[in-house]
Amino acid sequence: MLLRSTYESFSTGIYAPPRAFALRQFLQTLAVVSLSGWLVSTANAQTTSLSVDHGVAVKSDTGGTPKLAQTVVISGTRYEQFVENLPMAIDVIDQKEIERSGISDIRDLAKNLANVEVKRAPARFTVTGVGNSTGRDGNAGFAIRGQDGNRVLMLIDGMRLPRSYINGSNAFGRDSIAMNLIRQVEIVRGPASVLYGSDGLAGLVNFMTLEPQDFLQEKSAAPKDFGGKLFANWSGDDHSRSLGASLAGRINPQWSWLISANASKAKGLENKGTNDVPNIDRTTPNPQDDKTQSVLAKLVYQPSTTQKHSLSVEHIDKISDFELLSSRAKLPMTTASAVKGETAHKESTRDRFTLTDRYTLNHGWVDHVQSNLSYQDSSAQDDGVTHRNTLADRVRKVSYAEQAWQFSVLADKLFKSSSDFAQRLSYGFDYSRIDVSNFFDGVDPGNADFTPRKYFPDTRDSSRAVFVQDEIFAGSWIITPGLRYDHFDLDVKTQEGFAPPAKTPAKSLSGSAVVPKLGVLYKVNADWNAYANLAGGFRAPNAQQINGVFDSSTVPAVLLANPDLKPEKSQNVEIGVRALFEKFNLDVAVFSGRYTDLIYDKKPLGGKGVAGDPAIFQTVNVDKAKIDGFEIRGQVQWAEFAGGQWSSPFSYGKTRGTDQVAHTPLSAINPSKFFAGLRYTTDRVDWQLNARHQAGKDEAGLSSPYLPKPAVPPRVRQFLVPSVTTLDMQLQWTMQKNWRLNVGVDNISNKKYWNWSDVQGLAANSVVVDAYTQPGRYYHASLVVGF
Predict the structure, then answer these.
(1) Peptide bond into 332 cis (omega under 30)
(2) How far apart are CA 140 and CA 119, in angstroms?
(3) If we measure between CA atoms, which residue out of 585, 483, 752 comes closest to residue 84?
(4) Which residue did the predictor score with more confidence, 42 or 270?
């Protein structure tokens, strides 16, 4: 009853109870849940014995036949566990798959995943004038089950990646990742884990970087003292080419090291546009030059089998230069302010230092302890110049930065009361402190109102959390209750540079919540299991959302602050079945989420947007939304033929969402996507043909078939993407023992198509619709030499 009461109280919007009450409620609920779990599990214990090893519970007498390779993940419980034993849907992309499939960025990661997308609009933003940030954020970030942006928790080695930030013509995305440094990516759908944070309402994307051990072991598992790889990549979709190396060595049995580095250059993403004119009607890509440099260094000390210490240093630097031909006015230019041209420069850097310690103690209430201390300095700068017909040039310099400290401790203890019952208790503490700042500067001749400013004040965004999770293994049951207490503070550090010119000072905000989770998995037999997952979500607003303002006498628009903004909350249910046979595996999940107090950024509140009646915007909470859907994923292993093994991976996902106040669909939901492949493997050849079908977007899936403006007839309809089926092919050839050539061709039939996330809000009668198309047929290749 206490668990239910806690959940219902949370779901009705009681997000900030007095701190003493919240902690008392947390501890009481924890005690009841743990005791109830023990009693229920014991009552339902089966006679089948269990083997529990490092938190993985499997039947020891199933007598089942050998199965397809089981996947090991850490995102479910923060320690290694088979996916089949977790009551949640997880996708895993390892280093081998990243290389074989030619995955070069997060956009490639999401290509074949059900209900997962990455927005990548064309670079058609403007530097000044009417705010237009289209494509300035590059790969904007992940959308999972209909939710995107900062609702997706993104981690690298346990450290939170920088948030996205959009304001006017400036946008900073979340693609601060270099895939050559990554050994595995795990994507968890929904807020299924209390161990990582409640703010991942949509899910978790967990990046894990390379380890020295990845290169210090022969295929026979024999250790070696030095290893690594050299690689060169090329891709035709953005004309990228890169060179890199990963080296690892063992100094002695206790010390090992790794260093990996990469440098790449690229152009703008290709499309199917054909109008190459240098003005606003242009549909071919704008000229663009990208440069990326990445370095990862690790030092690992393992003095014994009971402890391990690792120091990681990571540096990412991305630079882009744009010539915005699509901003130019058509000839003849008849006004003094007509745009003759625009150029832009973007640079983002991320530096991270992480110290990780792991101990095996095996006494008292602790078997294992791991701690993680990280510092991350992230900054991004958008610069640009607008050249006008006869008026002086306008210059913009906009920056956004996060300096973050993060510390976490996780401990666990395994209790075994009998041969068929075990209980693993995991508990810990998380602390995060992020200093967030921004600055708007430049030159605007003739505009007396132009003043360098901060759109929101320098803010310290800190959070503290304690959590506990209890995995109960009883016969065929795995029951996993969990609780997390989160407290956040948004503290304004200074009003300097913000108020004035802002008319009122910014305000601070704080809040807290107790968020529950319950997972239940039942092993029906040796081949099948079923699971259910109930989880809450809680995401606090950020500094821009509560204190962001804009007010200018020369621009007929006003953005109001909202220091009373409430955190977003969610209730989520997922039910699934999973099969793992000798030649076939299947994972089916049905999910439903209920969201309250969703944050609507910069909602129009009124005003015509003209002098004397400016358009008024404010970030507000909207009442309720519902998102439902399902996913089917799996693989079939066919018979051997032509000297090799044949198999077929497949996935299909569909999501729908409803605004429960307006009773209209959520327009942002992406259409369904189906993927199926045919794969052929031998010792030296790995070939795969993929078919991907993306459904179209129709008016039934929109809150309105019309664009918001103009609000009076004649109104303009939105552009709707048609359905499309594309084919891709990839081949890996192991030429010699450690030489691998990877080649591929995407969009073999050269189809013209769009992704809904890129075009949402585009007018159906727009003459530049083709500028938003995806690349046509293109090739990619890489050469990898291991040693």
Answers:
(1) yes
(2) 6
(3) 585
(4) 270
Rounded Cα distance, 515 and 534, in Å: 11
- The H-or-E segment that residue 24 falls in is helix 19-43
User: For residue 59, what pLDDT is reported?
Assistant: 43
**pLDDT score of 448:** 74
Check residue 70 and give its pLDDT. Answer: 73
Helix (H) or strand (E) holding 545, with range, is helix 543-547
Max Cα–Cα distance, the chain, nearest Å: 87
DSSP 3-state of 22: helix
pLDDT tens digits along 677-708: 999 999 999 999 999 999 999 999 999 999 98
For residue 109, the surrounding DSSP H or E stretch is helix 106-109
Q: Decide the pairing of beta strands 557-560 and 568-580.
A: unpaired
Domain that holds residue 613: 2-786
Q: Compute the CA torsion angle 640, 641, 643, 645 (nearest 10 deg).
A: -40
How many domains does the chain divide into? Answer: 1
**How many Cα neighbours within 13 Å face the side chain of 517?**
30
pLDDT surpasses 90 at 17? no
Structure tokens at 32: 């009841």
Tokens representing 50? 């269990």
User: In terms of Cα–Cα distance, which of 162, 119, 581 is closest to 401?
Assistant: 162
Q: Is 583 in contact with 611 (CB distance < 8 Å)?
A: no
Question: CA–CA separation, 159 vs 372, rounded Å?
Answer: 9
- Residues in the chain, how many? 787
Tokens of 382: 């958008």
Predicted TM-score (pTM) of the model is 0.90
- State pLDDT tens for residues 573-594: 999 999 999 899 999 999 999 9
Q: How far apart are CA 698 and CA 381, in angstroms?
A: 38
Measured at the alpha carbon of residue 460, what is the angle toward residues 511 and 540, in degrees to the nearest 5?
A: 35
- Do residues 97 and 242 touch, judged by C-beta distance below 8 A? no
Question: Which contacts qualify for 158-161: CB closer than 8 Å, 24 or more apart?
Answer: 158/354, 158/356, 158/372, 158/374, 158/406, 158/408, 159/352, 159/354, 159/372, 159/374, 159/376, 159/404, 159/406, 160/376, 160/404, 160/406, 160/432, 161/207, 161/350
User: Of all helices (H) and strands (E), which one includes residue 89?
Assistant: none
The SS3 call for residue 185 is strand
Gap between the Cα atoms of 178 and 402, Å rounded: 19
State the Rg of the chain over Cα.
27
Could you tell me if 167 and 455 are in contact, meaning their C-beta atoms sit under 8 angstroms apart? yes
How many other C-beta atoms can be found within 10 angstroms of the C-beta atom of residue 209? Answer: 21
At 546, which amino acid appears? I
Nearest one of 784, 677, 680, 785 to 731, comparing CA atoms: 680
Separation CA 567–CA 654 (nearest Å):
27
> Could you report the per-residue pLDDT of 590-626, keeping only the tens digit for each?
999 999 999 988 888 888 888 888 889 999 998 799 9
Rounded to whole angstroms, the Cα distance separating 701 from 166 reads: 26
Q: How many CB atoms lie within 10 A of CB 448?
A: 8
The CATH code of the domain that includes 231 is 2.40.170.20
Dihedral angle of Cα 98, 103, 107, 111, to the nearest 10 degrees:
-70
CA torsion 58-63-67-71 (nearest 10°) is 10
Which residue, 75, 71, 74, 76, is CA-closest to 86? 76
Least confident residue range of 4-13, 674-683, 758-767: 4-13
Cβ 206 vs Cβ 155: under 8 Å: yes
* Nearest Cα to Cα of residue 80 among 98, 53, 59: 53
DSSP 8-state symbol, 216: S
Cis amide leading into 445 (omega within 30): no
The reported pLDDT for the residue numbered 607 is: 86
Q: Which residues contact 239 (CB under 8 A, 6 or more apart)?
A: 266, 267, 270
Q: Among all chains, which residue has been given the structure tokens 């076939």?
A: 584
